[in-house]
Amino acid sequence: MKGLWTIGLLIVSNVFMTFAWYGQLRLKGQKWFDELPLAGIVIMCWSIALLEYFFLVPANRIGFHGNDGPFSLMQLKVIQEVISLLVFTVFTLVFFKTEALRWNHAVAFILLVLAVYFIFKK
């Protein structure tokens, strides 16, 4: 159960982080956004990223085997990276229609799945 909670919290945290890092790129052309100074954009993105920490920190605390969770530190990191790239890919395909999923992206994802497999090998 802790494993599922960890993965769910990591997914939510990565949604917030993806919007913080890349969502602002989609707002170009909005009058209110274009008038913001760079510092204002950074503060806006940081505010979104702060929400990410409310999910990431508990995910790592719940999931880490040092806190009676099911995952080692290395496993947590690899899981987080795979989730991050999956969330980013969905985000890109939904919000940036000019981006395309190519064969090399598919190969990279396969290699990431292999990374997950090997990180869990004893």
From TrEMBL:
Keyword Transmembrane: yes
Keyword terms of this UniProt record: Membrane, Transmembrane, Transmembrane helix
TM helices/strands, residue ranges: 36-57, 78-96, 102-120
Pfam families, sorted: DMT_6
Protein name stated in the entry: DMT family protein
Provenance organism: Alistipes indistinctus YIT 12060
